[in-house]
Design a protein that fits this description.
This protein is of the alpha+beta class. It has 10 helices and 24 strands. The chain is elongated, with a radius of gyration of 38 Å. The N terminus is likely disordered.
Length: 531
């Protein structure tokens, strides 16, 4: 027996017919699917979480944009993991490609989430309140009572009551049961605040992006009595946005006249800075008369569109080095970098002009004391008992190799150590083997400044304020609806139904329904709530 093909395909032995395969997605369909995934709220939350995680290294590790000296010190102390993290961008997190990728994806995702909601909310703002449901008593909070008053009078009273309390009101008539009703809605600003918050978040991201591509910042150490000009070569570290030309920097300058710092001497907070300020003389342009200003923490100098922040300070011991013939081959103050809260500071003196070349590793102690092992320590950050410990080396420092060197490190691989000596101000150390001498004449102070131009900061501030306002609206405004329906009662008079529906759990809906029912003549003390 020959079984027809259609019968064989649907027979129990053959099983159910296979469903036809879905059509291929195609490139356009794939792009649409990817766009829907990217612009979903779930994706936006995931990207926001990833952005927060990506920001952690910028808070834990020193960053080149704010403190390049600490970055160099961290790399020197961690020669194993340091270069790996440096190549991955962990010391310049906010300019790294992976942070920018998360940032841009979050920006696009928020735009895709917010713009459709703005369009929908605009339509909702223009739409009247919805008509009364057919059975108001089935709503979560409702009240039904009989009134001797005319239905039109009751609806007019309800309309006046609700309009007087800033509800959006609409009157209508049901074509099903012939009832007339008043619908009211309130709390549109809740969704408005939610959208304002998200738009403000977008503007904050935009402001950060504008500051990233059009802004610049740099760090410089200036000793007392020395000056700074806003040119690229004057910076110790500088970074600018993609569209910033270093040749277009504003030509301002300033001189550090004096630096003043005072420390707490009581036992409770001993060593904490109490006064931290720099007196400077500045010019906004070369042909402008000089002006004076005191820069303090959180009180920067605003000049030529840039801000000059005071971010750190330290000591610069002054040395005079003489060679074996007694000729002065070095006479200058050297910046030493603080290593702890008591300003125990390290520095390097390089004297390539001596014959042979001399190099010194130094440890400056503002208030010197001796530890049990004889190692010098500082017990207070103020210069109460200054002393410097010097380790002298002689030989090739590698300056002629063509490889750039840090001014804060000394390559002693090809040098010979010739001695170790502590010096107080005015003290002189005659180096062994007729290598010359070094004199510690005193110290100067230096201040570290961060100079930044951020064109997006005003937009970021306004956006942050708008975000706060929007968040407050979304938290405290209650979205809810009320309805009043009247129909002729069977025994005479008017049957009045009052009900409400809350769009949020925090809305005090029973109080609104109770107040409206009371205004229409009901003497109820409490309302029933539907299960």
């Amino acid at each position: 027996m020959t079984v027809p093909m259609d019968a064989a395909a649907t027979s129990p032995e053959a099983g159910l017919p296979d469903e036809p395969p879905l059509p291929p997605l195609g490139s356009i369909g794939l792009l649409r699917w990817m766009w829907r995934q990217l612009t979903s709220m779930r994706t936006a939350l995931v990207l926001l979480f990833l952005l927060a995680i990506a920001s952690i290294p910028g808070s834990v590790l020193p960053q080149r944009g704010t403190n390049p000296l600490r970055v160099d010190q961290w790399l020197e102390r961690n020669p194993g993991i340091g270069p790996i993290l440096d190549r991955a961008g962990f010391f310049d997190v906010y300019a790294s490609p992976w942070f920018a990728a998360v940032y841009l994806l979050l920006f696009i995702s928020l735009i895709g989430c917010v713009l459709p909601r703005i369009r929908q909310h605009a339509k909702a703002m223009m739409a009247p309140p919805p008509p009364a449901p057919r059975r108001l008593t089935r709503l979560p909070v409702s009240r039904e009572f009989t009134s001797p008053a005319d239905g039109e009078v009751l609806l007019a009273s309800a309309h006046e009551y609700l309009r007087g309390r800033h509800w959006r009101v609409r009157r209508g008539e049901s074509s099903v049961d012939g009832s007339t009703w008043v619908a009211a809605e309130k709390g549109y600003l809740r969704e408005t605040g939610n959208l304002v918050f998200h738009v403000a978040l977008l503007l904050v991201l935009l402001a950060v992006g504008v500051g990233g591509v059009l802004g610049w910042k740099g760090n410089v150490i200036v000793r007392e009595g020395n000056g700074f000009s806003n040119t690229l070569t004057q910076y110790d570290a500088w970074g600018g946005g993609r569209f910033v030309n270093p040749n277009d920097l504003a030509p301002f300058s300033f001189t550090l006249d004096t630096f003043t710092v005072d420390f707490e001497r009581s036992d409770a907070q001993r060593g904490a800075p109490r006064l931290f300020e720099a007196d400077v003389t500045y010019r906004s342009a070369p042909d402008v008369a000089p002006a004076t200003r005191t820069i303090e923490v959180n009180e920067p100098l605003d000049v030529a569109g840039a801000k000059v922040f005071l971010v750190g300070h330290g000591y610069a011991p002054h040395f005079i080095v003489r060679d074996s013939t007694g000729a002065v081959v070095f006479d200058d103050a050297v910046v030493f970098l603080p290593q702890d809260g008591n300003f125990t500071s390290t520095g390097v003196i390089k004297v390539p002009d001596a014959s042979p070349s001399l190099g010194f590793n130094g440890l400056f102690l503002p208030t010197a004391a001796r530890a049990g092992s004889g190692m010098g320590i500082s017990t207070f950050p103020a210069p109460d008992n200054p002393e410097v410990l010097l380790a002298a080396f002689r030989g090739d420092m590698g300056l002629d190799s063509g490889v750039p060197q840090s001014v804060y490190t000394l390559d002693t691989s090809k040098m010979v150590k010739i001695g170790l000596e502590p010096l107080v101000p005015g003290g002189t150390w005659t180096l062994p083997n007729n290598s010359g001498s070094i004199e510690f004449t005193g110290y100067e102070r230096w201040a570290s400044f961060q100079i930044a131009h951020d064109p997006g900061k005003e937009l970021a501030l306004l956006s942050a304020l708008a975000a706060i306002v929007g968040l407050m609206l979304s938290l405290f405004v209650r979205r809810r609806r009320l309805w009043v329906k009247v129909v002729p009662a069977a025994g005479g008079g008017t049957l009045v139904q009052v009900a409400g529906l809350a769009k949020t759990d925090s809305a005090d809906l029973p109080a609104d329904v109770l107040a409206l029912a009371t205004a229409l003549g009901d003497d109820v003390d409490e309302l029933r709530s539907a299960p």
